[in-house]
Amino acid sequence: MQDNRPLWVPSQDAIAKSPIHAFIKRCNADFGLSLSGFEDLHAWSVAERENFWSTVWDFCGVKGERGAEVLANGDRMLDARFFPDATLNFAENLLSGRGDGDAIIFRGEDKAEDRWSWDRLRALVSKLQQAFSALGIGKGDRIAAMMPNMPETVAAMLAAASIGAIWSSCSPDFGEQGVLDRFGQIGPRLFIACDAYWYSGKLQDVGAKVATVTKSLGVPSVIVHYAGDAEAVARKTPGASTLEAFVAPYAAREVEFTRLGFAHPLYILFSSGTTGVPKCIVHSAGGTLLQHLKEQRLHCGLEAGEKLFYFTTCGWMMWNWLVSGLASGATLCLFDGSPFAPDGNVLFDYAEAEKFAIFGTSAKYIDAVRKGGLTPRASHDLSSLRLMTSTGSPLSPEGFTFVYEGIKEDVQLASISGGTDIVSCFVLGNPLQPVWRGEIQGAGLGLAVDVWNDDGKPVRGEKGELVCTKAFPSMPVMFWNDPDGAKYRAAYFDRFDNIWCHGDFAEWTEHGGLIIHGRSDATLNPGGVRIGTAEIYNQVEQMEEVAEALCIGQEWDDDVRVILFVRLAPGVALTEDLVKAIKTRVRTGASPRHVPAKIIAVADIPRTKSGKIVELAVREVVHGRPVKNQEALANPEALRLFAGLNELKD
Description:
Layout: H1 12-17, H2 19-31, H3 38-47, H4 49-59, E1 64-65, E2 71-72, E3 81-82, E4 87-88, H5 90-94, E5 102-108, E6 113-117, H6 118-134, E7 142-146, H7 151-162, E8 166-170, H8 176-183, E9 190-194, E10 196-199, E11 202-205, H9 207-217, E12 221-224, H10 230-235, E13 240-242, H11 243-247, E14 260-261, E15 265-270, E16 280-284, H12 285-299, E17 307-310, H13 317-323, E18 331-336, H14 346-354, E19 358-362, H15 363-371, H16 376-379, E20 387-391, H17 397-407, E21 412-415, E22 417-419, E23 424-428, E24 442-443, E25 449-452, E26 464-468, E27 478-479, H18 486-492, E28 500-508, E29 514-519, H19 533-540, E30 546-556, E31 559-568, H20 576-589, E32 598-601, H21 615-622
Parallel strand pairs: 5-18, 7-8, 7-9, 9-12, 12-13, 17-18, 17-19, 19-20, 20-21, 31-32
Antiparallel strand pairs: 1-4, 2-3, 4-14, 5-6, 10-11, 15-16, 16-27, 22-23, 23-24, 25-26, 26-28, 28-29, 30-31
Helix pairs in contact: 2-4, 3-4, 6-7, 8-9, 15-17
């Protein structure tokens, strides 16, 4: 496949049937426009935000009272308020179906399978709503959950949202301190946890952790049965009850929905916390709902009854994004556990059996499938799959090629990027334009995304800071425990006045797409030249000898030198020939400036719970500085491998 030809081009028939095509026709009719494609639509959506977002509300059938005003203080990022007069309830919009059709399908690594109808989901939401209310939990109170990605988790979130409570969750693989670093900051009224979980072929007991966290939080807890003995865990945890006992006094009835303001808090999400205590990012019910509907209906073309899958845990914002699929009447396909136990076909088996329409995953997963020698295109019937999305880190050009050669030839591949900060995407795919190798298709509708240089000027054909120059609905409401907004302003608005600076190192392409070169704070600056770490990974991680890589800038001789750490494939040693081959690959594939000064083999590379490598934490260790919050890491012991290395002393 050649770079001068697109990997995928939408058919005219598919375009004509897409929701975004119907949306364009509606905008043209309502406002006397002649929009003819995605570029036209995007330009209008940014120029006429009030008309655009009010049309999204109507087109997607948001349940609630919209009010007269769409946007107040729209020219001031921090003061902007979308739909200031509106009232709605997030759960009311997600509980869109009734009957015995599938709302949720679940598979666990331990071969557990379950199907939840809309009526079954509604019944548990109703019982939980009544139980929460009986505890005195109401609007603005927090409910914290340490749960697997299972149907009961979705039901508990919906029950919390139905009464205006704020939901916050993490996955059960977090350590005690990691859980408390998050939930200890937000003062929950209730803690919900599982009794055990499976990962990589092993049953993981969490009983002691649940007891410790419950005691430290000083609140009642509810223990949900999954893989262990919920009753035993509840007996050993003061103030705990099983889910069955918690809802036993209540009969299912119609769920009651408390409609609140558009900006009423819905979720508290957390930053990774690898450089300090995690930031508590508060997202609104209205902003989350409208942004997710826009992305799923217009950018992804999601239709009622389609199967929507994303490989995620409850500690990653993609879980929050996934569950919003219920608002479009989609069936959620949940999975909990390792995607490689017992083998790498697990998720493709699931996709084939349930006929996924959308398969969401990470760039690291796609690379692991490629390096594992799997070819789902040949081994599985993926005829139902029309869209595959990738996020978590930049997908390499070779990853793009592999999806089409190894997974499915006629699938739309949407590399997407955004984050916890906006619980959504700044840049993503769309069904109207071609997919080009190594490129994200474009910016999100309604989002004034651009790339600026250090002087605050827009640039094309060169790398710079990813910014958003106008307010949008899914900006955080606030940071928790940040009464004067200082942390919030410092996170996004210190670099440029009244401009959201996202912290990604990005570049526009000649096709109008974008390339994300890595995080700005991890950008390398040898000789004053800014280099994105992803540019190096895209070269090195395509080599069969290299399983994974991590790159930092080491302070050296009043400058910075590039240091590359590599975790090698089993049985491979870092010989002089391999060092030479890696440097040659980087020099020819990127540039001479990208060539690392040192290449060092390590047994493991530290990563967050959601699988992202932690360049900043490694940089701190290399320079002898403390890493403040190692509980945020999935494998904190790996940091020791980078301390006091003799190779970095000369």
